[in-house]
Write a structure and sequence with these properties.
It comes from Piromyces finnis. The chain is α/β, with parallel strands linked by helices. It is built from 14 helices and 11 strands. The protein is globular and about 60 Å long.
Length: 345
């Protein structure tokens, strides 16, 4: 949601200078299949419900630590596709990776797609993790962008998962998020309501500076759309009706800073500008309660704009905070080469 506000208040001069793109190529805005980015893509049915979540997984060599990525409002799990590829490379496939389309988004379908409450979305994350990783020794690194940051902070602060290795929030701060809500309906109305094709939607996302990485946009944007066939032909509309979720907006972000700071795990905050910090986070940062990384060259969709840089920081965060367990070696019961004293004649 904060992304839309940032786009809304951006100076008009910035729109006059779109990203440098070779538009002479007919394929520059063509959609890219996400299948090659993940080891497994499936619909996961939650036991005892009719809810089926679209999940994207990268399998590790050892399933001890799993990065769980929650996307922002109106987006999908594929907004992390490029980032996860870099993370897999940097991490040498040590950790598992899980992305998913949350309720009411992407290819996920539930018995109540309109229920985007903080409590429901948090429980969805827990249900998915428990279904895919039932081993109680599995540790989770929770990563959330915008709305996703509110969800993972709520899960971590309330210890809704047994083992949380780390908490990582991408470009969302309680103070600025709450201040932005008053503008949201106008911002949503300023977006195109439909597109003639997925390609047109990808082009709009780049030229409007919503996403600053065309490679990522080609993967993520199609998953945000729904295809509609009518008498006038085919059109693509937004999969998620964000305007209808207005009643949930305020509660998403209320108490976010306190939850983030109180979580009993190593913490990392990505932001595009230090000016976005509110008072609690400013104090917390000065007290060294969390790591902060600033990427001023990025827009709100930092994980799409600079996936390689964020992945590098995530990998360093993991390596710095993991507990080193030395390898065990068998110790012989007695020395194998005993020294003997020389005998006297």
């Amino acid at each position: 949601m904060e992304q839309l506000h940032q786009n809304f208040i951006r100076k008009a001069g910035e729109f006059a200078s779109p990203p440098m793109i070779n538009r002479s190529s007919s394929n520059v805005f063509e959609p890219t299949s996400p299948d090659k980015f993940f080891d497994k893509v499936q619909g996961l049915k939650i036991e005892g419900t009719e809810d089926v979540f679209q999940v994207y997984q990268i399998n590790p060599e050892e399933k001890k630590t799993v990065f769980v990525f929650h996307h922002g409002a109106g987006l999908s799990g594929l907004s992390y596709a490029l980032l996860t590829q870099y993370l897999r490379e940097f991490n040498k496939n040590q950790c598992g990776i899980l992305c998913y389309d949350c309720r009411g988004h992407g290819q996920t379908h539930t018995s109540n797609d309109e229920d985007l409450s903080l409590e429901t979305l948090s429980q969805d994350l827990v249900n998915i993790c428990n279904a895919l990783y039932p081993d109680p020794t599995t540790e989770f690194v929770l990563v959330g962008h915008s709305l996703g940051g509110a969800i993972v902070s709520n899960v971590a602060a309330n210890q809704m998962l047994k083992k949380i290795f780390g908490l990582i929030v991408i470009d969302v701060v309680e103070g600025t998020a709450l201040e932005s809500l008053v503008h949201m309906q106008n911002v949503l109305l300023s977006r195109p309501t439909s597109f003639k094709s997925e390609k047109e939607a990808i082009e709009w996302s780049i030229l409007s500076h919503t996403i600053r990485n065309v490679e990522s946009a080609r993967i993520s944007v199609p998953s945000q759309l729904a295809k509609i066939e009518g008498k006038t032909g085919v059109k693509y509309i937004w999969r998620t009706n964000l305007s209808a979720s207005e009643k949930y907006w305020e509660k998403w972000y209320q108490g976010l800073s306190e939850k983030f700071l109180s979580a009993r795990a190593p913490k990392l905050l990505f932001i595009a500008s230090p000016d976005r910090l509110d008072k609690p986070l400013t104090i917390g940062q000065m007290q060294g309660k969390f790591q902060m990384e600033i990427f001023p060259e990025c827009g709100h969709l930092m994980n799409e704009d600079a996936p390689d840089k964020l992945a590098s920081v995530l990998n360093d965060f993991y390596n710095r905070n993991k507990v080193f367990i030395p390898k065990r070696f068998n110790i012989p019961l007695r020395p194998t080469n005993r020294a003997t004293a020389p005998t006297r004649n």
